[in-house]
Amino acid sequence: MKIFFSQKQYKTLLKVVETATWIAGVGTDYGAQSDDFKIFCNEAHEIAEHLKSFAKEMNASKLIDEESEEFNNMLDIVSNVMEEYENVVFYDNLIHKLIIRDCVKKYGKNYYKFSPEERMVKHLEFSKKYESAISEYGIDKIILSD
Questions:
Q1: Maximal C-alpha separation, the chain
Q2: Spatial distance between the Cα atoms of 20 and 25, rounded to a whole number of angstroms
Q3: What's the mean per-residue pLDDT of the chain?
Q4: How many whole angstroms separate alpha carbon 49 and alpha carbon 74?
Q5: pLDDT tens by residue, 51-99
Q6: Three-class SS of residue 146?
Q7: What pLDDT, on a 0 to 100 scale, did the predictor assign at position 142?
Q8: Whole-angstrom distance, CA of residue 14 vs CA of residue 48
């Protein structure tokens, strides 16, 4: 199979693959150990190396040269994308966990017996409160008390 890319598409693909290998690396650094994750890491690395082997042909050698400004600019873009993604995921997970916690407090173990539709309705009771607070204050208003 042959796939043809413009230089712009190739450079974008390098950024996408760099993002995937970044995720794989961070997951590995923080102890991800599942077989699926390890396979993903290896495959992402292999694809990245294969893709980089075409850099000279695609006039993109500087994008894989760790000493070049273009490489560092690419890493900055990937870093910014990852930071934004991590923030969105963090807040989404935080809100989701707080909603479940409050639903279990209010409805007890019966919460787990509700249908998915019923649980969604129950979630809505709490979601607006958390979404608006997080949207306005971030984590500044989160206080742990005993």
A1: 62
A2: 9
A3: 88
A4: 16
A5: 999 999 999 999 999 999 999 999 999 899 989 988 889 999 999 999 9
A6: coil
A7: 78
A8: 8
Residue in the block written with tokens 């923080």: 30
CB 82 within 8 A of CB 22: yes
What DSSP state is assigned to residue 51? H
Question: Which pLDDT tens digit goes with each residue over 99-112?
Answer: 999 999 999 989 99
E-only strand ranges, 69-108: none
Q: What is the C-alpha to C-alpha distance for residues 20 and 53, in angstroms, rounded to an integer?
A: 17
Q: Decide: residue 14, CB within 10 A, 0-12 exposed, 13-18 middle, 19+ buried.
A: buried
Nearest-angstrom CA–CA distance, 99 and 88: 17
Place of tokens 């760099």: 18
Local structure of 140: helix, strand or coil: coil
**Do 122 and 103 contact (CB within 8 A), yes or no?**
yes
- Give the predicted TM-score (pTM) of the model: 0.68
